[in-house]
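Hi R.,

Here are the chain sequences for the assembly we discussed:
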Amino acid sequence: MTEPLHRHESALRIADHPFLRGLDPSLIESLSEQAVERDFDPGEFLLRDGETADGCYLVFHGKIALEVSAPDRGRLTIQTVGPGEILGWSWLTPPYRWQVDARALKHVRVVRLDAGVLRRTFTELPEAGYQFLLRLLPVVAHRLENTRIQLLDVHGV
Amino acid sequence: MASVGDRRRIDRGSFPALLAALRSEGYRVLGPTLRDAAIVYDEITTEADLPIGWTDRQGPGTYRLERRNDGALFGYTVGPSSWKRQLFPARERLWTARRTGEGFEVAPEPPDERPVAILGARACEIAAIAVTDRVFDGAHRDPGYYARRGRLFVVAVQCGQAGATCFCTSMNTGPGVTGGFDLSLTEILGPGGHRFLAVVGSEAGGRVLDRVPTVPAGDEDGPAAEAIVARTAASMGRSMDTTGIRELLPSRPEHPRWEVVARRCLACTNCTMVCPTCFCSTTEEVPSLDAEQVERWRRWDSCFNSQFSQLHGGSVRQSTQSRYRQWLTHKLSTWHDQFGTSGCVGCGRCITWCPVGIDLTEEVAAIRTPAPTATAPRGTP
Amino acid sequence: MGSSPAAVAPVGGARHPYAPTPYRVLSRVSETADTVTITLAPAGGAPIDAHRPGQFNMVYAFGVGEVAVSISDGGRFPAPLVHTVRSVGKVTHALAGVVPGQVLGVRGPYGRPWPTEPAEGRDVLVVGGGLGLAPLRPLLQELLAHRERFGRVEVIYGARSPKDLLYYPEIQSWRQRTDLRMQVTVDAAGRDWYGDVGLVTARLADVRLDMARTVAYLCGPEIMMRTTARDLVDRGIPEEAIWLSLERNMKCAIAQCGHCQFGPVFVCRDGPVFAYRDLRRLLAVREV
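And here is the predicted structure of the full complex:
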């Protein structure tokens, strides 16, 4: 997971990403359209709360902090996302707006899939799209579980 | 010299001699007496302290004293007090510590050396003592309990009648007394005269009986006593089906009946206070005013108290339902896992002294009935 | 059953089961805003018995009371006793506020230790949450002292926030070892934290052990142990190879006060360390 990515290999690489591995090759081929490899330096934002959610990130390297800000608590990291994981699902449903900030903690390398391509592909290949969603939902569920534990403050009591 | 197993007759007129014999053997005598409209256990100095000619009428949530039409000394069943209070006092000092410079010195409470005789222990109560013997034994045997236990002289009385909340036959603890006594008595009224059949259970029992005017038990005394026990056994006010109960209760933690009983249960702790085997306790630190000396006390606690299962985040058992379930499941099931015996002796005190009359025999029967299938198990999302 | 005065011999000579032994405070180190680690040595008298990793003591503050605290250092007898205490109540507040030289009381050690024999020749996973690292620390020390007996060893430690991490210098030294892999994660963090944020269960995905041949030791909030144990079973660790340490209200620590009952067991005597296999069913029932 840590070896450098090469731009011309992106299509091949996304098929290797654990999130997509084993999915229908025609789906992966469709998604690779407009897929771009991107690097972020520590401190750089991948996405920001309130902005249009126009892409989905396959993380290949580094660590990303999902942050929320509260006036009296400053910037608070609520979860970190690392290699092999996927970042972002707000592109799937209207209003297509990010709900958190995502900031690189250390040098991050991702492949960004285009939201328009994703949505169009899902309409054209609903069965493959369903397989994609089956993998996305546990990511959402895990975030929810994380939030639940934070709500309980189990270590605090 | 009367020896173990000897059966002798004590005439009613010689009964005071038994009290005198116990005292001359050095025992402080505790037994049933009338107080606060109930028959409770307290110090007995003369036979006039006994509830002669009285009986009790019990039911779920009710207890009334009534006059008998005879002069029976033991013509009643068990009241709110039990011998637990004698062996495991409601409050007991464990140790005292005194400040010494930067540190402190701990002095364990010296054991109370005075021998005690308990007069009128019923079969269920002797069974209860056997249960608490196991509770306070183990790797850290309780010194206070065992000091008192070792000096305890037990005068058993076989029950001549069963109360409306009694079910010792279901728990195999009575009404016949089969062991665990120094002397056992059966009070025989009617033909042949008011008398007692005494059986010697220990050498100490023999020594006491030697000081009492007795004659060898007559041919009719044994059968008369057996008939009394048989009559009592046949007139139990309650019964409980204990078949597979050890597996039953823990297997139904989500039975809807727990919620039903919790609607009535006040979590008042009465059942645990009157129970002759409930042993839960807590400790308290009692400092002197100048904080130079502290006393550590142990006092009865109850699994019905909200603080009982307190952890930093809150109580583990917040609902009354969970506390009732804990109590009943422990008493009838997990007690076996812990001590190799049931925690219930069938005395019925928890039924009588429950302010709302919750009857565990009824609750067990209800939980034995499988929950209607339409009711989803609680706790499923 | 005999009941004559001679039938049951009274107890004599042995130490009173409720009497604490005076111990002097050697040091007090702040771990977090509300948690301290205190080190104790016998104040003149004979020490209490030797302990094993995972056991606990009843620690007593004169005039205040006593509380169950796990032993958080595996130092061999008669090394000083180490306890990590979080100030959450009257007694723990008094214990957290001690000064060196002050005398406390100790009775113990109590409970069943972490069994290490089942882990010999196998991989080991240690998962701690919050203060749950305290009773795991002597276990880790023991694993490292006999490192050759075990396969790969991994640790996952979760805390509420970076400033709630216990034994920080020791964690740093563990993380630098090549014979131990340690992941640290927190529930939430500020920008000065570059580590992981999220549940300990999220870190399980990154564990590089042979799960079918791994023994796991868990201690932390019950909800965390429950979800972690379920997750570990899903990942292939057998139920009987998962050990966890339970917390319940304790007054006597000798299975006589009734407070710590969890179904059929007394946590003080039969635990606090249990095999997950034996508790799984009860852990799923509410308010046991």
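Residues 133-145 of chain C form the longest helix (13 residues). Residues 23 and 242 of chain C are 35 Å apart (CA to CA).

Let me know if anything looks off.

Best,
T.
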